[in-house]
Design brief:
With 330 residues, this protein is of the alpha/beta class. It has a domain at 72-270. It contains 8 helices and 22 strands. Strands 1, 3, 4, 6, 7, 8, 10, 13, 16, 18, 20 and 22 form a 12-stranded parallel sheet that branches. Strands 5-2-21-19-17-14-11 form a 7-stranded parallel sheet, with no helix packed on it. The two termini are 17 Å apart.
């Protein structure tokens, strides 16, 4: 009888954890203390038994593209998160460019240069996925440019912490920019640039102390041009166009042009969500610890709508292991 009651309790916990989840939980993160108190008063399952999964629990943004990853940055982009390259008029490529992620175009129809270029995701042209992604990308652009500045006209050739950095007209990266996350994996870096973003040849963007490329945004009022062999990071959302010259790379980044073209030339672009597998939904949620660990082990991240981000899901994987350990100890 004691064993039967124990099994019945475990079944109740599992049912309560799944049935009481908010459908928008992936964008909201862990519920507030007030929400937890209300749920407990209503007789729902003790949230401590469900496990909150630390950072991995803030699952993927709702994705029309495939592997957009999770976390703050993907929640901002929503259906656009799975795209590594997105444009309005045309996407053209010269040389052996490699794009790790989806490619999207709307309302244009010309995507050229693949091959010799290659991509690991899905090509979406004027379909329901790109239509939703365009709406979400425009909303993200409006959100990001509307945030109050914390620093005006910073020196990009320096080390910067989290913040909103504003340029009234153009911004230029000449040598090396270091973004210091200060130990916070959710730290946001937003660069509001009134007109153009340009980088010098061989310039670099480096992330340290937990900074995540998925949470770095370059919102450009007109066009962006990455110089030869630039090693850049973060999501560029340009109101007009983006040009990547020979050898420039977006190692953990996205090239997204709202109203014009993206032009590539022997470049490498890797979506911070780390890949695609077709036009599915958003990335799966982070791992729940404790009692749900064993269950989620059978539903690896990325096996549903698309692959999740390497950067943003490290903690989620850790929580899966915690879940296994807790179940084994039972």
């Amino acid at each position: 009888m004691r064993k039967f009651l124990g099994l019945l309790t475990l079944a109740f916990v599992a049912f309560g954890c799944s049935s009481n989840s908010n459908p928008d939980r992936s964008l909201m993160g862990p519920p507030s203390g007030a929400a937890l108190s209300s749920a407990m008063a209503a007789g729902t399952v003790d949230p401590a038994l469900c496990g909150k999964g630390d950072n991995g629990d803030s699952g993927g943004g709702s994705g029309g593209g495939s592997g957009g990853g999770s976390g703050v940055g993907s929640a901002l982009l929503k259906g656009a998160a799975g795209f590594a390259v997105f444009a309005a008029s045309t996407i053209t490529n010269t040389g052996p460019s490699v794009v790790n992620g989806d490619i999207g175009l709307t309302p244009g129809s010309a995507v050229t240069g693949f091959p010799p270029g290659t991509f690991t995701g899905t090509l979406h042209i004027n379909d329901a996925v790109t239509a939703q992604a365009k709406l979400d990308l425009q909303a993200a652009f409006t959100d990001l440019v509307g945030r109050p500045c914390t620093t005006v006209a910073p020196n990009l050739d320096s080390t910067l912490g989290p913040g909103v950095y504003c340029f009234s007209s153009s911004a230029q990266l000449n040598t090396a920019l270091v973004l210091d996350g200060q130990g916070n994996p959710n730290a946001l870096f937003i660069f509001q640039i009134g007109s153009t973003l340009t980088t010098a040849s061989n310039s670099t963007v480096t992330l340290i102390n937990g900074a995540s490329a998925g949470n770095v945004f370059w919102v450009v009022g007109s066009s962006a041009t990455l110089g030869t062999n630039t090693a850049f990071q973060g999501t560029i959302i340009a109101y007009s166009s983006i040009t990547m010259t020979t050898g420039a790379s977006l190692t953990n980044g996205r090239a997204m042009a709202l109203n014009a073209a993206v032009t590539l030339d022997s470049n490498s672009i890797t979506n911070p969500g780390a890949g695609s597998s077709g036009g599915g939904g958003g990335g799966g949620g982070g791992g729940n610890g404790n009692g749900h660990g064993k269950h989620h082990k059978h539903h690896k991240h990325g096996k549903h709508g698309g692959h999740d981000g390497d950067d943003d899901h490290g903690d989620g994987d850790g929580d899966h292991h915690d879940g296994d350990n807790d179940r084994d100890s039972d």
